[in-house]
Design a protein that fits this description.
about 230 residues, alpha+beta, Hypothetical Protein Pfu-838710-001, 8-stranded antiparallel barrel, globular
């Protein structure tokens, strides 16, 4: 994904059984739904940093067809969230930025820019950010199944720390349709019988993991935060 406005709502599923039930309901509601990918991911979140130095470090590495999106999210976005990702063998720089009052790390409506770097390892990509003044916030690991319908994308994640989590997502090209898209996703969630994970609880979970991530990264351990 080069760029766009990501509308995403999360639901905490808890158990594998609840995840399986959601998938069954998805195919019942959307018979055309397809499982499009299964992968393992490592996600490294960063904080702080100098975005002028980030631009300098990455300009020579950004492909020509991603340069406009890269510059746009740095210029227009707010509350940026910067992370690196290893998706199976692919290494990616991910920059997200808020377009509403939620956070860029976990918010509902966000700009997003993703750029793959086939010539770099995850450690090498991390090092470029560290040299730009960023520091590690936390490291995450997850297994992901991604389903597609004509209306949306559904990701079922088994996250270290969080357990099973569903992400209902749609990428739109204009911020003007963000609210309408959020309402559409919430309607689908209601039909599937799952509840939205509140931003307040999600932020508490995120904060707890950021402190204790080394206990959970790469494991099947799960915590509960109300």
């Amino acid at each position: 994904m080069a760029a766009g406005f990501e509308i995403e709502i999360k639901s905490l599923l808890g158990s594998k059984e609840n995840a399986s039930t959601l998938i069954e309901r998805l195919f019942a509601l959307f018979p055309q739904a397809k499982l499009v990918s299964k992968n393992n991911q490592l996600n490294h979140y960063f904080t702080g940093g100098d975005f002028v130095k980030l631009r300098e470090k990455f300009t020579e590495h950004i492909p020509a067809d991603h340069k406009e999106a890269f510059e746009n999210i740095l210029r227009v976005g707010k509350k940026h969230s910067v992370r690196t990702r290893q998706l199976d063998e692919t290494v990616i720089l991910v920059i997200k930025a808020s377009i509403d009052d939620t956070t860029s790390a976990n918010g509902i409506s966000r700009m997003e820019c993703e750029v793959a770097f086939p010539e770099l390892t995850l450690d090498a990509l991390d090092q470029l950010l560290l040299e730009a003044g960023f520091t590690y916030q936390a490291k995450w690991s997850r297994e992901r199944e991604q389903y597609e319908t004509d209306e949306m994308t559904l990701c079922i994640d088994k996250n270290a720390g969080y357990g099973y989590l569903a992400e209902f997502e749609k990428v739109v090209q204009s911020a003007e349709v963000a609210e309408k898209t959020r309402d559409e996703l919430r309607s689908v969630m209601s039909q599937l019988g799952v509840e939205e994970l509140s931003q307040e609880r999600l932020e508490r979970m995120f904060a707890y993991y950021n402190v204790h991530w080394s206990e959970y990264y790469g494991t099947n351990k799960v915590f509960t935060i109300k």
